[in-house]
Design goal:
The complex is a heterotrimer of chains A (about 775), B (about 160) and C (about 290). Chain A contains 17 helices and 29 strands. Chain A is an alpha+beta fold and about 775 residues long. Chain A folds into three domains: about 160 residues, Aldehyde Oxidoreductase, domain 4, CATH 3.30.365.10; about 180 residues, Aldehyde oxidase/xanthine dehydrogenase, a/b hammerhead (Aldehyde Oxidoreductase, domain 3, Alpha-Beta Complex), CATH 3.90.1170; about 325 residues, Aldehyde oxidase/xanthine dehydrogenase, molybdopterin binding domain (Aldehyde Oxidoreductase, domain 4). In chain A, the strands form seven sheets. In chain A, strands 3-5-1-12-9-10-11-20 form an eight-stranded mixed β-sheet, with helices on both faces. In chain A, strands 7-15-14-13-8 form a five-stranded mixed β-sheet, sandwiched between helices. In chain A, strand 9 and strand 10 form a beta hairpin. The longest helix of chain A has 28 residues. Chain B has five helices and five strands; from the N terminus they run ββαβββαααα. In chain B, about 65% of the residues are buried. Chain B has about 160 residues and is α+β, with helices and mostly antiparallel strands. In chain C, the strands form four sheets. Chain C has a five-stranded antiparallel β-sheet. Chain C has about 290 residues and is an alpha+beta fold. In chain C, helix 11 runs antiparallel to helix 12. Helix content of chain C is about 40%, strand content about 25%. Chain C folds into three domains: about 45 residues, Uridine Diphospho-n-acetylenolpyruvylglucosamine Reductase, domain 2 (2-Layer Sandwich); about 110 residues, Uridine Diphospho-n-acetylenolpyruvylglucosamine Reductase, domain 3; about 110 residues, 2-Layer Sandwich (Enolase-like, domain 1). The chains are: A alpha+beta (about 775), B alpha+beta (about 160), C alpha+beta (about 290). At the B-C interface, strand 4, helix 3 and helix 4 of B face strand 1, helix 2 and helix 6 of C. The complex binds flavin-adenine dinucleotide and FE2/S2 (inorganic) cluster (2 copies).
């Protein structure tokens, strides 16, 4: 019988005290005696052949311990597609790519040495325009693409720049459009953006005398990092160890293996000496992961009554120089391409396209922010074409019990309807009929907009979690997991689950820092999957430990196991609660009245893997169960538009998500709050800008603006729907990424309701909005 | 060029030899091992490196160690007494006004600087005090609430002591 | 991390000048460092010697008395201006402009002298100093001189300062009549951002209205042609005409923050608004008195 002592309780975060005092150590805070400092020499061309590298001057500089180039470590690596090397080999493929690395006694010396490295390039035409990149005969970023190792779920097109083509073919698309009374088609675009965690990537690598490589890294994925390194090094896994201190924000950017790889060849040359690399903010912006740009065309067939009959969706991803991780973003955006709607006939093509831009990778939302930017504006426009209120049109088409999504999966009780209704209620939705019109002399207008979303964890079908629970003789409990604390509150929620399930006090649970040599395995801390997946493993481990304690106690008290219970770290006889001892009595086993021992230390183990997920059909993308689960949500916003400048202020946001079961209402709410503000920031401000030569022009906060404390809504209402997830812990499912997905389209829809204008290209800067307004005014005068 | 400098850091007198180019941030982190102040950008934009110099919040990435000669420096490590957190820290904990925590020491110091000068700030003043501290996780609202609550509670304490 | 350099502290005006002359082009004056260290961090600027001016006598602090010029030490941090009661009440526009710079932390270090010596076209205190008709008191190899702010800037990052010359004080002429000033700044975020366009407008009880613009030309500019329209009339038509003249005088560029055309449009919009608000503010003072 599961207790509910800690379910739905907003306990204080277990990492809070350490963080608020500055005691928490992040990777870049670690120091070792004799540590060396690494600096990378980076390419000044977007696309060029490396003719010659001369490192002699650098090597001769006093204090320099090692200099490496691509030739020192040409092994390919990658999570889903092995298309990448730590340093450029023969060719550079984006402005900023690492060409050489230096390890030296000080950062000053390392930088000076990097400057002394001479590189001769032969420039190649850069592939920067997505439309050009997909043309037949386009210059190829990876001519050898067809020789790269790639996961079975991905479909590169040889002799093109397309490293993955994901397809949905559902129903009969032609019939669907033939049935339509109205066909509506538009293009949308999202630019490259960056995660911008406040902690830049940092790592320390040590290659010791036993040929063991240890990396301390600011990483969402210590185990995936170990895995990728081991594969690319050709090392057994026990020779690679990744240690993960606290992470200062990830948002996807610290998933997989990234800049850490550049330390490996350096460490191998400087045996037994740790080497530290901390990215500058410029490197963080350009040389870690970025979110790919995406250009898409969306075409929808709809009946007069509002029913969707068909949808054709073509997405082109500006995926950058390497798409080892990006291919999966394009796949996820493909299989989720119906959004929250039930569309009988669908055709989706999602193309992952190599360009000479920074490396595209996972970013909170993982393809869904991008496709929802299109879908959730599109439906609003159709609503206005048909003269139906946008909320009403959504109601007409929402997925309900028994509906199918893009993959043909039959859905059970999707929570979207409740989310939509609640968000509309919270914002005070009133029927909208048609575009806003700005009267003469009006300087500010207010309006509301709404958008829905759904997302599933994008991960391999067999992504696994595990947990180990160990009781200490002082009554504290160690929880060993491989899930990382990035700020999302996983350590807190998992400790809560453990406390709840085992019957101990939450305060007594200690979540251990991750070390792949000792921690329980976790695939990656991504995909909003930790509460769901690792939560299940923790429940199992806690049950296992609990069972051991119960057995020990039954022996100890001489009663049947069924007569024992544990609560608040006390173990007692149910039929005689006076007979009660602290759980620590059993931590190391029991001493029986005759002084003999029994049992031994309590160690619980638990694992989880979502079952029954099957591959999608490569031709049609159809599958009965393509993903672990779907989380739904809706957001409504109220904005104020400054008509004179085009500036949008988001005044109020209502965000409602179906979390299945809210385990900690505070950490859940904080996820939503942070996500909404990130969504506003992305909606209004964020864009990486490139020169015509492919150089990133704004790799700093000076000109890549993110929301400050002065840019947040006055009011943010958060609520949850709880339609239980069948295989989730207590019914819970993930919400971490979802929360920023619908914000930009909700703002865009509000903008239309305010002023009758559409900005289909993110971000909705004042300048862009201003010109759209001007055009509208002059069009109405014409 | 080497300079001999003397300053008070978290109440303790510190004497050191530093090169001209050593930033206050590096001095604190690398020489004194006070790693609470973080480097998020090195250019004054993120506020993660905020510490108090003579009671005023500054970006320690934009100040030289030698410029702090003779001054009083307070970092997050200098707050609170023993196991007791400073009221601002406690309020941030209680309000769950942190997530990854990387921005937190800087925000705490900005708030400290504000409350030292103004025990009863308005919401706008709190926003002003922390708008130079970027936070990618929290969305700021709870941080603002947490700081507002400290000022409210110190208010009631004042009233209490008057009675 | 910063590249190596030597830091020296100037104790006197003469000291500063001598050190600077000795250092030649390798030297840079250092005040708050909020511009300098950023450029050094980016390796755009690699001085070998930094001459800290902050301890020169009289370079920090505000001297203010009714009926006299306001004198501000060049190294006074902007927050000192923002918090100064006299400046807030008598030269409110200056407090507004200083307050609009960067973040609170930055304003604790950033000096008014550094803001103008850095000579960014977007320097936020510059339009205000233009409308107050400030004078820049410098000290250099040829001893002291007074430079009118209107002649101070010569281009982006360029001023009339000579090698070895530094700004000691900034003088703002005493107030002869009542005035009300408004500083409008358009950025991308609501806080901590550089101006896309900024407008300082000072309405004086004498009937004069002074207007200066930031971020729309190679230097901050005063737009006297626009001002002159308002000498005789202050009705809506005159305001619109002045705003449109301000736009005509602006010669912005397209950069990463905004396009040229948008800057032009905003110049007109914001100039109009600044004039309206300044006139309304002045009228309100009149009513109170
Ligand atoms: C995060 C951030 C945000 C910012 N936001 C803004 C903003 O919104 N608006 C704005 O206008 N600026 C902004 N700035 C720029 C900067 O803060 C200001 O220009 C500041 O006023 C510069 O003053 P300082 O004392 O720091 O100058 P320093 O960096 O010390 O010096 C700047 C330049 O002036 C020279 N100099 C300084 N003092 C003197 C002197 N007395 N005589 C001769 N030469 C001198 C120096 O040699 C140097 O070339 C921002 C900076 C940062 C880091
Ligand atoms: S590190 Fe100092 S402000 Fe970012
Ligand atoms: S809590 Fe992560 S940056 Fe603020």
């Amino acid at each position: 019988m599961a207790r509910e002592d800690y379910l739905g309780v907003g306990v204080i975060r277990n990492d809070a005290a350490e963080k608020v005092t500055g005691a928490a150590r992040y990777a870049g805070d670690l120091k070792f005696a004799g540590m060396l400092y690494a600096k990378l020499l980076r390419s000044k061309h977007a696309h060029a052949r490396i003719v010659r590298i001369d490192t002699r001057k650098a090597q001769d500089l006093p204090g320099v311990k090692a200099v490496v180039t691509g030739k020192d470590f040409p092994n390919r690596m990658g999570l889903y597609l092995k298309d990448r090397t730590p340093y450029a080999v023969d060719k550079v493929r984006y402005y900023g790519e690492a060409v050489a690395g230096v390890a030296a006694e000080s950062l000053e010396i390392a930088e000076e040495a990097a400057r002394l490295i001479e590189v001769e390039y032969e420039e190649l035409p850069p592939v920067l325009d997505l439309r050009e990149a997909i043309k037949p005969g386009a210059c190829l970023v990876h001519p050898d693409l067809d020789t790269y190792e790639i996961g079975a779920a991905f479909f590169p097109i040889p002799n093109t720049n397309i490293s993955n083509h994901f397809r949905v073919r559902k129903g009969d698309i032609e019939k669907g459009f033939a049935e339509a009374d109205l066909v509506f088609e538009r293009e949308y675009y999202v630019p490259h953006i960056q995660h911008s965690p406040i902690e830049p990537h940092a790592a320390i690598a040590l290659y010791d005398r036993n040929d063991k490589l240890t990396i301390w890294a600011s990483s969402q994925s210590p185990f995936a990092m170990r895995n990728i390194l081991s594969h690319s090094l050709g090392f057994p896994m026990n020779k690679v160890r990744v240690i993960g201190p606290y992470v200062g924000g990830g948002f996807g950017g610290k998933a997989g293996l990234n800049v850490e790889a550049t330390l490996v060849p350096l460490a191998m040359k400087c045996r037994n000496v740790p080497i530290r690399l901390v990215c500058t903010r410029e490197e963080e912006f350009r040389d870690t992961f970025v979110r790919q740009g995406m250009l898409c065309r969306l075409k929808t067939g709809v009946k007069h009554d509002g029913r969707f009959t068909a949808q054709e969706f073509e997405m082109y991803w500006d995926a950058g120089a390497y798409t080892e991780y990006g291919v999966n973003v394009t796949r996820a955006a493909g299989y989720s391409s119906s959004g929250v709607y039930d569309i009988p006939n669908m055709k989706t093509d999602s193309y992952c396209v190599y360009t000479n831009k920074p490396v595209g990778g996972p970013l909170r939302g993982f393809g869904h922010s991008e496709n929802h930017w299109a879908m959730e504006q599109h439906i609003d426009q159709i609503a206005h074409e048909l003269g139906i209120d946008p909320v009403q049109l959504r109601r007409i088409n929402l997925q309900r019990d028994g509906s199918t999504n893009a993959t043909g999966q039959v859905l059970r009780n999707p929570g979207i309807e409740q989310c939509l209704e609640r968000a509309a209620e919270l914002i005070g939705w009133q029927e909208v009929s048609g575009p806003g019109v700005i009267g003469p002399g009006v300087k500010k207008v207010r309006a509301k907009g709404i958008a829905c979303m759904t997302k599933a964890p994008a991960m391999p079908n067999d992504a696994a979690s595990s947990a180990i629970v160990k009781l200490n003789d002082d009554g504290t409990v160690y929880l060993s997991i491989g899930a990382q604390e990035l700020g999302q509150g996983s350590f807190t929620v998992l400790a809560q689950i453990l406390a709840n399930e085992l019957g101990v006090r939450y305060e007594d649970v200690r979540v251990q820092p991750i070390d792949t040599d000792y921690s329980a395995y976790e695939w990656q801390t991504v995909a909003s999957r930790i509460t769901y997946s690792c939560g299940r493993a923790v429940i199992a481990a806690a049950k296992d430990a609990r069972h051991q304690v119960l057995e020990h106690a039954a022996r100890y008290f001489g009663v049947p196991v069924e007569d024992i219970d544990i609560a608040e770290s006390k173990v007692f006889v149910k039929s005689d609660p006076e007979r009660c001892v602290h759980i620590s009595t059993f931590s190391l086993g029991v001493t029986l009245p005759d002084f003999s021992g029994y049992g031994g230390p309590v160690v619980g183990r638990g694992t989880f893997i979502p079952e029954g997920i099957t591959a999608m059909n490569p031709e049609t993308g159809q599958s009965e169960k393509p993903v672990a689960n779907w989380t739904y949500g809706a957001q409504a916003v109220e904005i104020e538009l400054d008509v004179e400048t085009g500036k949008i202020d988001v005044l109020k946001v209502a965000a409602v998500y179906d979390a299945g079961r809210v385990i900690n209402p505070v950490t859940a709410a904080t996820q939503v709050e942070g996500g909404v503000v990130q969504g506003i920031s992305i909606g209004l401000l964020e864009e990486m800008k490139f020169s015509e030569q492919g150089k990133l022009l704004n790799p700093s906060y000076v000109d890549y603006k993110i929301s400050t404390a002065a840019d947040i809504p006055d009011e943010l209402l958060v609520d949850f729907v709880e339609v239980p997830q069948e295989d989730g812990p207590y019914g819970a499912r993930g919400i971490g990424e979802h929360v920023m997905v619908p914000t930009p389209p909700a703002i865009a829809n509000a903008l239309y309701h305010a002023a009758g204008i559409r900005v289909r290209t993110l971000p909705m800067t004042s300048e862009k909005v201003y010109w759209a307004l001007k055009e509208r005014v002059s069009a109405s005068l014409r | 060029m080497l300079h001999t400098i003397k300053m008070t850091v978290n109440g303790e007198l510190v004497k050191a030899e530093v090169f001209s180019q050593m930033r206050l941030l590096d001095f604190l982190r690398e020489e004194l091992d006070l790693i609470g102040a973080k480097e998020g950008c090195g250019k004054g934009e993120c506020g993660a490196c905020t510490v108090l110099v003579d009671g005023e919040p500054v970006n320690s990435c934009l100040m030289l160690a030698v410029e702090a000669d003779g001054k009083e420096v307070l970092t997050v490590e200098g707050l609170g007494e023993g196991d007791r957190l400073d009221a601002i820290q406690q309020s941030i904990v209680d309000n769950s006004a942190l997530q990854c925590g990387y921005c937190t020491p800087g925000i705490v110091m900005s708030a400290k600087g504000l409350l030292l000068r103004n025990t009863n700030p308005t919401r706008d003043e709190v926003v002003e005090a922390i708008s130079g501290n970027l936070c990618r996780c929290t969305g700021y609202a709870r941080v603002i609430d947490a700081i507002m609550q400290v000022s409210a509670s110190s208010d009631s304490q004042d009233e209490g002591s008057e009675r | 991390m910063l590249l190596p350099f030597d830091y020296v502290r100037a104790r006197t005006k003469e000291d500063a000048v001598n050190l600077a002359i000795e250092a030649g082009p390798n030297g840079s004056f250092l005040a708050g460092g909020t511009d300098l260290f950023v450029r050094m961090y980016d390796r755009q600027h690699k001085p070998k010697i930094l001459i800290d001016v902050k301890e020169i006598e009289g370079i920090e602090g505000i001297e203010c008395q009714n009926g006299e010029d306001l004198s501000i030490g060049a190294a006074s941090p902007l927050n000192m201006l923002v918090r100064n009661k006299f400046i807030r009440s008598e030269y409110g526009l200056l407090a507004q402009a200083a307050h609009s710079v960067g973040s609170l932390q930055v304003r604790n270090r950033a000096s008014i002298g550094g803001n103008i010596c850095n000579a960014s076209p977007a320097a936020d205190t510059a339009p205000t100093l233009l409308v107050y008709e400030a004078e820049i008191e410098t000290w250099g190899p040829k001893n002291s001189r007074l430079i009118s702010i209107g002649e101070f800037f010569t281009g982006p990052g360029k001023t009339v300062l000579e090698q070895g010359e530094f700004v000691h004080k900034i003088r703002i002429p005493k107030k002869d009549t009542e005035s009300y000033g408004v500083y409008l700044k358009l950025g991308r975020t609501n806080s901590v951002d550089l101006s896309i366009v900024s407008v300082a407008c000072l309405a004086l009880a004498s009937g004069e209205v002074r207007i200066a613009l930031g971020a729309v030309a190679s230097t901050p500019i005063r737009v006297r042609k626009a001002e002159s329209v308002l000498l005789n009339s202050k009705d809506e038509e005159a305001i619109a005409r002045a705003a449109s003249l301000a736009r005509e005088m602006a010669v912005p560029i397209t950069d990463i923050r905004a396009g040229e055309e948008y800057r032009l449009e905003m110049t007109e919009v914001m100039t109009g608004n600044a004039i309206r608000q300044a006139l309304a503010g002045l009228a309100a003072i009149g009513e109170v008195k």
